[in-house]
Design a protein that fits this description.
The protein has helices spanning 2-9, 22-28, 37-50, 56-59, 70-78, 82-117, 124-155, 158-170. The chain has eight helices and no strands.
Length: 181
């Protein structure tokens, strides 16, 4: 707990989260609300670099239980070798990088269509054009996701692929999948 407070307490300089284990980083997650903007960004970057994301079940565990990071849960759940885990992490980082622009564009288009729709006299042609662009962006993201799954399938054996399907079908829906006004 002292390490968490020290890591999130100082705002004078950015924190170096690379010195923490993945388990320690996972344990810090709930305390990042009180950290400075720069510290939260540094924390997020380190977690993304390592691929840390706790499942809903891990986040809801009582405080006394040890939290594990998502890559470790996947490794254990699928029975991955170290080389398989490393390759999947590389593929995940590649996939995140390839969707970054499309997600940013999608967010911008969604803001634009919302703003146009809420005008006193919305331009329905502009809304139709924005809707088409949103659809094309979603299609691009779906193709990138499919390519990512195909690459993952080259790393996993048939049994691991089946376990991965089950894992993905049973994961809880996150904030990004909920309908927001």
């Amino acid at each position: 707990m002292t390490a968490v407070l020290l890591a999130t307490g100082g705002t004078a300089s950015a924190a170096d989260y690379s010195r923490y284990s993945s388990e320690e980083l996972g344990g810090m997650r709930g305390n990042m609300r009180n950290a400075s903007r720069q510290e939260r960004a540094d924390y997020r970057n380190e977690c993304m670099k390592r691929g840390i994301a706790l499942s809903a079940g891990e986040r809801s565990r009582p405080a006394g239980n040890t939290k594990q990071c998502r890559p470790q849960l996947i490794k254990e759940g699928l029975g991955l070798s170290d080389s398989q885990q490393k390759k999947l992490q590389e593929l995940r980082e590649k996939q995140f990088a390839s969707v970054r622009t499309e997600r940013r564009d999608l967010f911008s288009l969604q803001q634009e269509i919302r703003n146009e729709s809420l005008k006193k006299h919305p331009d329905n042609r502009k809304i139709a054009m924005l809707s088409e662009k949103i659809g094309r962006t979603h299609a691009t993201l779906a193709r990138i996701r499919s390519d990512h799954f195909q690459e993952m399938a080259t790393v996993l054996n048939p049994g691991q692929i089946e376990k991965m399907k089950t894992f993905m079908e049973n994961r809880p829906m996150g904030k990004s999948r909920k309908m927001m006004l």
